[in-house]
Amino acid sequence: MRTTTRQWRRTALATTVAALLATLPALPASAAAVSGNALVWLTNPSTGTYLSKQAPVTWKTGSAAAGSSTITVDTTRKYQQMTGFGASFTDSSAWLVGTKLTTKQRNALMRDLFSRSDGIGLSFLRQPMGATDFTVNGNYSYDDMPAGESDPTLANFSIDHDRAYTIPLLKQARKLNPQLTVMATPWSPPGWMKTGDTMNGGQIKPAAYPQLADYFAKFLKAYKAAGIPVRYVTPQNEPLNNTSAYPSTSLTADQAKTFINDYLAPTLRKQHLKTGILGYDHNWDVTSYPESLYTDAASAKNVAGTAWHCYAGDVSAQTVVHNDYPNKPAFQSECSGGTWEGTGQSTTFAGTMDNIINGPRNWAQSIIRWNIALDGSSGPTNNGCQGCRPVVTVSQNADGTYSYKPTADYWGLAQASKFVQPGARRVASNSFGKGDLEDVAFTNPDGSTALIAYNSSTAERTFTVRWGNRTFTYTLAAGAAATFTWTGTQQGSTAPSAIGSVDIPFRNSDGSRALISYDSSLLAQQPQVRVGDQWLGYTLPTGASLTAPTGETALSRDGWQATASASSSDDPPSKAIDGDASTRWSSGHGMQPGDWFQLDLGSTETFDQLVLDSTASSGDFARQYEVYTSDDGTNWGEPVATGPGSTMTRILLPKSTARYIRVVNKAGSGSWWSIHDVSVLAPDGKATSSTGKGSGLQRKSATLPDGTRLQVAYNSGTSAAVFGIPWGSTTYTYRLPAGAAAIFTTRSA
Known about the structure:
globular, alpha+beta, 749 residues, single chain, 10-stranded mixed sheet
């Protein structure tokens, strides 16, 4: 590793990444300690300490230190295999690194980024297919045509734009880290393939689906020929973000199924391309989109997993979707830091560490930030994000030369990417959550273990790390992160209560394992109904259904009135009950906790189901709801149901008799809350019957440390399974799609 003088280190520690890394001792590939000790690397922005090797800690046998919190690591409980950590060489990033730095600077930066021995070992790049909101000279694709013209045979296809400065950097990154994974994503196809003949907004013309599939194939072949094999693609970046400001394309879930099943997947197979297809590639707040790809038999075979973004919703959505469809992996494909997090190093580092720790804790196989490099003004931009933070800043100096400097994203990535090898398995550990001690642990292919801990509280914390029957104690300043690495085999068992979650394994027909992992925090992510002195909960993967033993009939809307806490002037509450699904009520502002929509049924009625249809405004459903009933519209009591929303929110209720129903939104979102149609259903007394079926159905039970009881069903078959579920004093019928799992919970009210 490069060396420097002690005096230079004191005066120029923060000037370049190369200088900072020069202060570190050489590390073995595994960055692991000798048996008996754990090595420690610390980042504390408040003291200007970055990836600094500390004195090792010694394992001891015995109890935890009195009064300290305990992080328990159990390397016998293994979860997803990690693919890597990284970012994206957007056009802006590649241009800055490839054309503004000297050869010496560029080589140093690339070592800092991708070398496992001399740098932080980034191992995953998500590469745009054409222009994004970060390009130097506006929009471009690989087959641009003059306005009004098209190229159905793709005769003009070329990746020459990328040969100037992007592909050389990708090849250099692969040479520095041969384990590098590359995925590719379009922000837009060529404009001539779309409505409006522009890359900015609009939809893909259905007649252009064959050409777009060929476009993907040509790109993959061209990149492979250039020395850049691409492991994954997604059909469209942020398919629910349709803007005229920069390259974007609307692609609904049904459109995605058609494109993937009828065009993209067959084309890749026909041309012997083994690149995997990841569905969705957008935010956590719309889980129904990726799940709809899994419940469809064809796309379930063609889609290798889901790519997630972090800009709306909660990271726990990754676990929800995993538990619904446990054979489909999750990747975090984009999560940019930015000025919205603040500007201080400690504040921005907090956002990065949240992503680094909680993404993998929720089944992510990759953590990919956004731009590798931007300039001092967070550009060059293409009418897109203002204030996005890169991994390194490449800035022009007063003398016209350029230099680079790491950001919080670099140092956050470093705490993981240098020590967690591709192929590592996340292992069990407890975490105290945001605002406290947070952590995630991994076992590497070489047998070494890495524990990443971050103190997100405002005070210094002393804690104990327990691994089997061994412990050590460490003190971590507020806002600081430490990575601990060690070798050896765990001695001694771990009580499930020390981790706080339960693992429920099932077997697939091919002998592989489908693993459900559950803890009490997930209760808020599923519908629950209060029945007597208990809350009965259930998960409902997209494609599943839970039906009562009697038929349902919709109550007449005659005499209904609707009110809301706030409304758009164009979309009053009355439009949600007019029987016309093309009209809507909308809140008129981004969703806020406490927003409510209320029905006056005109008289006391008996009912057991409420349906809120937001299908025509994709994504505009309440993210989390509570339902209340009242006889007088004033006294509401306790909620009778709670759960997450969806485009078609079907809320089962205990049999209720009331005049008023109020739905309260409990979570924030930038989307307006919209309801196009409301139905209230009552049991009609007509018995329904369903014949149980599904040879692949497996059932297991478990109990959480807090006493919550779980019943878990998993369908390993190839067709839907139908079975009965006792619920209160009645038995409901559950339909579970192939490859899906359902979790039923019982807890005290």
